[in-house]
Description:
48% of the residues lie in helices and 15% in strands. The chain has helices spanning 2-12, 14-52, 74-81, 126-133, 148-151, 174-179, 241-247, 267-275, 289-297, 300-329, 331-343, 348-385, 418-445, 448-457, and strands at residues 55-60, 86-90, 97-102, 112-113, 136-140, 155-160, 170-173, 187-192, 202-212, 217-218, 236-239, 257-261, 284-288, 401-402. α2 (14-52) runs antiparallel to α10, α2 (14-52) crosses α12 and α12 packs across α13.
Amino acid sequence: MIFRRTILFIERKHRETVILTVLLFLLFSFFFSGVVMYQSTESYRDKALAEIGATLQISYLPELDESTLDGVDQNILSRVQSIPHVLGVDVAPPSLSGSCIPLGLKTVKTHSGFNPEQQPSPIYTDEEARMESDCVDLIGCSAIPLRNQFRNNMSVISDGSFPTNDNPGVLISRYFAELNSLRINDVISLKYLYSDASAMASEVKIVGIYDTTLKFEILEENDMGVAVYKASPYNAVFTDFDTASKILDRDNTVYNFKVYVDSPKNLDAVQEAVQKLPMEWDKYKIYNETLSFYNEYASQIDTVFSNSLRLIILTSTVGIILFMVVYSIWNNQRIRDIGIFEVLGESYIHILMIYVFETLILSFIAAVLSVPTSYFLIQFISQTNSPEFVSSNIINIITPYDTGEYDINPVYAVSIDIKALLLLLIFVFMIVGITGVALMFLLKKSKLQEMLKAGEES
Length: 458
């Protein structure tokens, strides 16, 4: 009965109904857009930090030469490993990798994207590029499980185990193993591409084989020519620190090391603990790699994050104020309507419910229309204000190929989930509640005679 009277009441007030519906539609559209943007950037930031990881890099100052350094004492590394929240220490410097020829074996050429055969390289000669394309990328590491692709489960051990100094050998991809019919415990010969012609190849045992979900896409900006094949995740060969030092003919003295931490929020505490260790800090510097990488590629998220939060607060505040101002402008009309309802014998509760149902019906209509509208509004904001955020792969910025290792979703990924819809529903009921409170105040302050008088004057 009340619902029917509410519908008749709405149909009688065309102008007021249209104005209120449009006002609520704009209010909910901007509010919901802010909520979706906020949630999207929040999940994007968490995903970016998870993929970047939490690492500190301790390196000697660039102006120094390794020959002037004594290296990092093993006791220091052990003490770093024992610091709370430290997951592991990688004593292999970034430079402990290189192109190696797998004697008698083929390298994987599987890829998508452009054909590198048709992409001349300004970096390599044709002969150099061809030699590189037939190489694997040997990567020396003392903390292979903590590397990005294994830590984020983009690559997993399917057979065997990770190579370590106590379990020396190599870890190869399933693609490389199947191409060359290799199995666990097989021995392969690797020779560093740039070693002396008289240098002997090193025989190493296969201790592990890994499966990977990473894809290898060669981009249009590839300037490596066919040498880009060496960078394929299928041609990555991981090995322990000592084996890599031997094959690459490098000094196995530790000059740099990387510290893996369990969470970005614990980086500062770990960094402070590391800096208290008795190292030659006049020769070394500690870098927060997570902060550096995040600031370079993902810090824009914080701007969008804060802007979306401001949009929610501003929309809520201004919208509610404007909504109440419009209601107050129509007070005389509403006072007259209330007086008529009371003359007709309607109870206090019935009158209140008619107005509450009116706001509820118009709010739901406006909220339903605001959901698809928010999609286009978010796309418009992202394209006009922050087009650089709409990128599918952050790694495209720094390499001529894409492995998907840093496959970060767009900041403005419109994900209308249950949580966002629930927040919109709560906001709808908040508007209805505020309207109800205002009407209760209006009903209590007004007497029947004053209502009729105000109606006659209007």
